[in-house]
Design goal:
Mean pLDDT: 83
Number of helices: 3
Low-confidence stretches: none
Largest sheet: none
Number of strands: 0
Helix content: over 70%
Shape: extended
Distance between the termini: 54 Å
Number of domains: 1
Structural class: mainly alpha
Strand content: under 5%
Order of helices and strands: HHH
Length: 95
């Protein structure tokens, strides 16, 4: 007898706007990670050069992928800036 798996809860699909906002959030987060890796690389000691080189390359690849996805979806810089402002205001309201 074959077992059937039943979902405990219904998975709700995100709207297109929610997907776009999540994509922009990811772009912002990766840009921050890339900036931090670049800043840390400037002051790194010999043992960590390879680590930060890898981190920079990985974050740059991820950022390039996310930007390509944003272009495919038609997300523009103006939209990204609007979402940044919205997210910033939400953080201020929450804090």
């Amino acid at each position: 007898m074959q077992e059937e798996f039943i979902k405990d809860r219904k998975i709700i699909d995100k709207t297109d706007v929610e997907k776009e906002i999540e994509l922009v959030r990811n772009i912002i987060a990766v840009k921050k990670e890339l900036k931090a890796a670049n800043e840390n690389f400037e002051f790194v000691e010999d043992e960590l050069i390879d680590y930060y080189t890898y981190k920079i390359k990985a974050n740059q690849s991820k950022l390039n992928y996310l930007i390509r996805q944003a272009k495919i979806k038609g997300i523009t810089i103006d939209m990204i800036n609007q979402i940044k402002i919205k997210l910033y205001n939400e953080e201020l309201d929450a804090g």
